[in-house]
Amino acid sequence: MGIQQRRFAAAGNGEPELGHVIVLAGGLSYEREVSLRSGRRVADALRALDLDVEIRDVDAALLPALQASPPDAVFPVLHGAMGEDGAIRDVLDLLGIPYVGAEPHACRIAWDKPTAKSIVRAAGLATPDSVTLPKEVFHDLGAAALLDSVVRRLGLPLFVKPARGGSALGISAVHEPSELPTAMVGCFAYGDTALIERYVPGIEIAVSVIERNGTPVALPPVEIVPAGGLYDYTARYDAGDTEFVTPARIPEESARQAAEAALTAHRALGLRDLSRTDLIVDPTGQVHFLEVNVAPGMTETSLFPRALHAAALDLGPTLADLIRTRCFP
């Protein structure tokens, strides 16, 4: 049976039958291990539904395999460069293979945090004031004078992170001017451009969005309470290092604003199928946009599966529904 015939076969329960599904995980970014963990969980959840699922890495063998035996759909669970910058999705489009998630142009916009902040600000969302500094500017104009200007403009404390990237790699909180140079060096270890934001105190939350019957729906907000105060790589992926509260302990009006902010970001950035928006609720209840993720983590400690659980949605069937949407548009 050919690929198109498989896509339009019917299962016994009346739902379209899914054939071969490839979960893409791994890659060569700094977030490889997280991606592999996410990929295994997605594959296990789909296999529990008796789907034919294969996990593949992004390497020299991938393209020949896709061309020799095109799958019915691909579920990318790639974090970091290539996985979230749209490149792999461009390749899938070239091959005519359906995939879950945002299209390449939307990935490129969301992947670049300063660009995403500008777009959501234009759409009406509050987001912390910031400055973006490429490594070349940092060196060529003189680090000391430039960083003094940053502190005068944005004040303290500050938050420094790579302009592109995820899993909180290269992030630092800066409370004193003397800490800023070290934070910049740490940031540049993971990317050539730093985003320096004014620190907004408050409750950190994540609001995931999933499309149901073509309509984006915000899931319950997940509150993030890291033991060390900073939601860094260790706090994200080491079980027990962070407390997660779902739904978040925020005022009802803030929860409404947070849901609307996530939906606004999803739409304004042109995202598709699923996304996760990270937000801060300040002491006045105001919601501030931080960043958006087009390939949310799916590990045991990740926020997207927690939000699904809080919404009484099972991971496997929900992901299978997203795949069916791509296979049977």
TrEMBL record:
ATP-grasp domain mapped to chain residues: 117-324
Cofactor annotation: Mg(2+); Mn(2+)
Catalytic activity reported: 2 D-alanine + ATP = D-alanyl-D-alanine + ADP + phosphate + H(+)
Binding residue positions for Mg(2+) 2: 291, 293
One Gene Ontology cellular component annotation held by this UniProt entry: cytoplasm
Keyword field contains Aminoacyl-tRNA synthetase: no
Subcellular location(s) per record: Cytoplasm
Keywords: ATP-binding, Cell shape, Cell wall biogenesis/degradation, Cytoplasm, Ligase, Magnesium, Manganese, Metal-binding, Nucleotide-binding, Peptidoglycan synthesis
E.C. number: 6.3.2.4
UniProt xrefs under InterPro entries: ATP-grasp (IPR011761), ATP_grasp_subdomain_1 (IPR013815), D_ala_D_ala (IPR005905), Dala_Dala_lig_C (IPR011095), Dala_Dala_lig_N (IPR011127), PreATP-grasp_dom_sf (IPR016185)
Cofactor remark: Binds 2 magnesium or manganese ions per subunit.
GO terms for MF: ATP binding; D-alanine-D-alanine ligase activity; metal ion binding
Broadest EC class assigned to this enzyme: ligase
Positions bound to Mg(2+) 1: 278, 291
Residues at the active site: 31, 167, 302
Function comment: Cell wall formation.
Protein name: D-alanine--D-alanine ligase
Species of provenance: Thermomonospora cellulosilytica
Gene name per UniProt: ddl
